[in-house]
User: What shape does this take?
Amino acid sequence: MRTTVGIVGAGPAGLLLARLLHVAGIDCVVLESRDRAYVEHRQRAGILEQGTVDVLRAAGAGERMDRVGLRHDGIELRFGGRRHRVDFPALTGGRSVTVYAQTEVCKDLIALQLAQGGPLLFEAEALAVEDADTDRPRVRFRHEGVEDVLECDYVVGCDGFWGVARKAVPAGTARVFERTYPFGWLGILADVPPSHDELVYARHERGFALLSMRSPSVSRLYLQVPQDTDPRAWADEEIWDELTRRFATDDDWRLERGPITQKSVTPMRSYVHEPMRHGRLFLAGDAAHIVPPTGAKGLNLAVGDVVTFARALTHQRRTGSPALLDAYSQTCLRRVWQAERFSYDMTTLLHPDPGATPFEGRLQLARLERIASSRAAETDLAEGYTGFAFD
Ligand code: FAD
Ligand code: DHB
Assistant: This one.
């Protein structure tokens, strides 16, 4: 098999890249190790920045998002029993975010790719990216039990944190920057209307809690739990009891309960692999960087990377100049590090660290008070949350 761009992985990064290349008239092949149902139902992110919404729309993938996505103009911060709303449009000159789940973004992009785009092979596991530093990189893969080779002009590794593409970068040429956190998130989906019409980020002495949603009838909620927690260790009523404690306010706000349909634990990690390119292999999305989920940046960063790659390759084809491809890593990393900073700030602002001193606990409250009382501090949060510009 031969193609211009070999894409490893059909998560949001790989699927959107395939769509952007299709729109630009550049052929590609997507290899995905899992089956279609798995990719379409894996519960993950839920918040799209304005820039992500604009990109999906411009790529012709925004029809259902515009119909059923929920525009959100703010979030609520909750601490010490008090509530503070952050008004995004007022603080950012009109920007907002959209609640539309990653599962739905993937469903829309898969349907478009299968109807209009090039090959998208499910249950096709990439085994290795080879010859990345030549002008004929290759992906060795196994599909339906048979090994094959995809010969490419470029390979884009969109295969997530556990993928194989990053392994093709020789250790001596890369640097990794990493931090782990001593806690994770227990996430649930529940068949109950969200108890608040905007997201609620709660800092409580017992731990962080987040109220989000998937639709007007489905809630998505998260609890800070110790690292390596087994989700089965939490009975449904225990989860609701703990959420109720952490969201408690001084007024008559109530958390509604309903049947829990899914439960899982997400670890928390910050990770950046520099550079994001080796020869003709480009890394995009979680294959190159991870943020802790607080502030919902992971999916949006993946979108920024593939937009940057598609623009750079289109530019090279139109003008013959490789300048934008050569700048790919640098261009992406500027935005990546702003998102790393923002996600780290949100995480350390809202999660009591089990090893922290009482002094650090008071500092968290002081940082929250500052956001609630200073327009400058609040604006910084609103700008970060609604997203950093695509270069
Ligand atoms: P992925 O979505 O990981 O996609 C990579 C794809 O590559 C997968 O489909 C995988 O099956 C495939 N693949 C892997 N190896 C191979 C191979 N060898 N050959 C072929 N295909 C391969 N972000 C938020 O903003 N909010 C959240 O609540 C949130 N929750 C998360 C929960 C979990 C458990 C995880 C892991 C991430 C979460 N994220 C969240 C982050 C967000 O979902 C990711 O940033 C986003 O999925 C990145 O997209 P991606 O396409 O780069 O990678
Ligand atoms: C969701 C996840 C996040 O990490 C976040 O900050 C907000 C919402 C969600 O899954 O809905």
User: Anything to note?
Assistant: The chain has a mean pLDDT of 97. The chain has twelve helices and 19 strands. Residues 8-14, 31-34, 39, 44-45, 102, 125-126, 158-160, 163-164, 266, 285-286, 293, 296-299, 302 surround flavin-adenine dinucleotide (ligand 1) (CB under 6 Å). The domain at 183-265+353-386 is CATH 3.30.9.10 (D-Amino Acid Oxidase; Chain A, domain 2).
